[in-house]
Amino acid sequence: MSRGRREIKTFQVEETQTLGRLIGEAAQPGWIVCLEGPMGGGKTALSQGILKGFGVTGYITSPTFSIVHTYETNRGKIHHFDVYRLSGMDELLDIGFEDYLKDGIVVMEWASIVRDELDGTILDVTLELGDDPQERTILLEGEESLLEGLHLDKGWEKTC
C-alpha cells in the first residue's frame, strides 16, 4: 500500500473544525487519528470537528486531565485521548488502550508520545501555526486510499 500526504491551510477555527468534520464523516471503526502540534495549535478544535463528524452531539472538551473521553454515537464509539501527561505506551496500556481499539475509533492528541508503538489504520495529522494567529497548516499523512476517502477536494486551499 502506498502512503500519501495532503497539506491544507485553514484561516479560522471554524475551518479547522470543518476539516475535522470531513475526517469524522469518513472515519471507520478501527481508525486511529494521531494529532500533533504545538500548545494552542488547534488539536482540540480539529478533534471537536472529528467527533462531530462521527456523530457526537453536545459539548466536547479535551480530556487533558482524565486522559480519555468516550462518546457513543449511532456509528459506534469514539474515544478522544489526550496523552500529554503520559510517559509512554506502558501507561497507555495500563488504562486499557487495547480495549478502546476494539470497539470504535480513537482520536489522540499529543500522539507522538506513543506513535512509534501504534499499529493499524492510522491517519497522522500535524498542525502548524501560521503567520496569522488563526492560520494553520495541517499535514495529513496515511494510506493513499484513506486520504482519498476524506474527500478533501471541497474547496480547500491545497498546498501540495
What does this protein look like?
- It contains 5 helices and 8 strands, in the order βαβαββααβββαβ.
- The protein is of the alpha/beta class and 160 residues long.
- The chain has one domain (3-154): Rossmann fold, CATH 3.40.50.
- α1 packs across α2.
- The protein is globular and about 40 Å long.
- Belongs to the TsaE family.
- It is found in: Cytoplasm.
- Specify the overall morphology: globular
- Estimate the strand proportion: 25-35%
Query: How many strand units?
Result: 8
Helix-strand category: alpha/beta
Q: Given this structure, which CATH class is correct?
A: Alpha Beta
Distance between the termini: 20 Å
**Number of alpha- plus pi-helical segments:** 5
Order of strands, widest sheet? 3-4-5-2-6-7-1-8
Radius of gyration: 15 Å
Low-confidence stretches: none
Named CATH architecture = 3-Layer(aba) Sandwich
CATH superfamily: P-loop containing nucleotide triphosphate hydrolases
Q: What's a quick, concise take on this entry?
A:
GO terms for molecular function: ATP binding; metal ion binding. This protein has 160 residues and is an alpha/beta fold.
